[in-house]
Amino acid sequence: MLLTREEEKGLSGEYGEGLSIAYRILVAIGEATNAEKLVPINWAHVSGVNYNTIGDSGLEFLKKISTDGKVSVTTSLNPMGFDRDNRPDLSTEFIEKQMEIVQAYDKLGVTPTFSCIPYELMPLPSEGTQVSFAESNAAVLANSYLDLKTNKESALSALASAITGKAPYSDLRIDENRNPKIEIINEMELENELDYGLLGYFAGKTIQKSCTGICNVSNSLEISKLKSLAAGIGTSGSCGMFKIQESDRTIEKIKYDKVEMRKTKDELNTAEDGQLITFGSPQLGMDELGQLHTLLRNRKFTKPCKVFCPKTVYCKAKNMGLTESLEKCGVNFISDACTCLTPLITRQDYDSIITNSVKASYYMKTSNKISVALTSTKDIIRKYTR
């Protein structure tokens, strides 16, 4: 891989150990993906924040790279393990280790968004801009809807890009790789966010390519459906982009019908009921909080309900009076964290939960070992409110 003189100096350690580590990560990835060079990015979104996921080894790495490393571009941050303003009954060790991770990112100069939906919080760059997103739903949505360019980055590669301001020029960063080689032909009438999440999960699992075409789907979807579609694709496989398009007769096609939808849901739906309702994987933005508020008018949940959203969204909703109204409906807000991989929802406390998210369903099943009743928002409210 061809490096500039400045990049070679950074790699050699002339500008410090933190920058050298970052370049070594990117060069290794670039060589593995046959990248010819590094290209500039102007925004990175970093994962690897929750102590539950990175553990002590990840914490030690962050401490090391933050000794003299600094981010060189705008850098947002994925959710951590809990809400600092709504502290649960977690172990002292977990809280202390989680805050050490937060401090390391602060030392690096990362913006503490603690959100998996940075595209709803940060100013968007111009179309075609190269970015580096580690969060899978954000990467898929950036490529597919926001007209940005990113690969599905790992926690390490996105952090390395944040520090260097560069990324390997490979895969979805190259225009010719952003055209579908296979199409999903949707034969279903998709009614809600869960239907789109199931379609996305099927597409991501079925098509292990950079980009998939999706046919017979509206080109003007509301944000909740787009997020569900992107999160489904990002959860189940390596696909990093979708294009909603008319069918191209020259490429391979895969049918998605009632049978495939049922098989997909049966894989993820592992319970008939649950002890807890959760919304927020990806986290909810203002539009979704508004929709929830409208659906809940004059109703109250009959089971505990946790809503995960970014702190900035929570504060905006609070100023509008939305949070107070939703809390009266039985909602418990949790900011800074996400449904997935959080220590706030464990097998010790819950045998099963109820959610509208295919991403939450997948991770609850595989990581938290908790069963899930997978249900759309409208059906949750119909069944679990009075």
From TrEMBL:
It catalyses: (R)-5-phosphomevalonate = (2E)-3-methyl-5-phosphooxypent-2-enoate + H2O. InterPro entries: PMDh-L-like_dom (IPR007506). Keywords: Iron, Lyase. Pfam families: AcnX. Its EC number is 4.2.1.182. Residues 1-382 form the Phosphomevalonate dehydratase large subunit-like domain. The keyword Zinc does not apply. GO terms for molecular function: lyase activity. Heterodimer composed of a large subunit (PMDh-L) and a small subunit (PMDh-S). Belongs to the AcnX type II large subunit family. Component of a hydro-lyase that catalyzes the dehydration of mevalonate 5-phosphate (MVA5P) to form trans-anhydromevalonate 5-phosphate (tAHMP). Involved in the archaeal mevalonate (MVA) pathway, which provides fundamental precursors for isoprenoid biosynthesis, such as isopentenyl diphosphate (IPP) and dimethylallyl diphosphate (DMAPP). This is Phosphomevalonate dehydratase large subunit. It comes from Candidatus Nitrosocosmicus franklandianus. The lineage of its organism: Archaea, Nitrososphaerota, Nitrososphaeria, Nitrososphaerales, Nitrososphaeraceae.
